[in-house]
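Fold it.
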Amino acid sequence: MLESIYYFLDERGKSPVKEFIKALSQDERAKVFAYIAELKNQGHNLRRPLADYLGHGIYELRPKANRIFYFFFLKNSAVLIHAIRKKTDKIPNRDLELCLKRKNEVEDYAKVERIT
C-alpha cells in the first residue's frame, strides 16, 4: 500500500493529469479513479492488465483506451505525471520523453499536489 499519490504540477501550478481526467466522461473518470485507488492499494505490486512498466522508472495505468503515466517517489508514494488517450499500439516517443522530463522535474523540485 502506498502512503500518498500526487499530481505533477507544471510551471503555472496546473496539473495536466487532473485536467485530462476532468475532460473525460463520467464513466471514464470513475474507471480512472478506480485504477488510481488500486494503485494506492497495491503499490509496487500492481501489474497487467491494470498497469505496466514502460522503462526508465515510468509506469502506466491502463483504464481502457486512456493511459495515466506515473512513477514511484520517495519509496512509498507515486506521482501521476502525464495522461493520453491511446490511439496506436505503441506509446509515442514524445509522450515518453515528456514523462521523463516531468519525472526529473519532480525529483529535482518536488512540484506536486497530493490527491490521496
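The chain has three helices and six strands.
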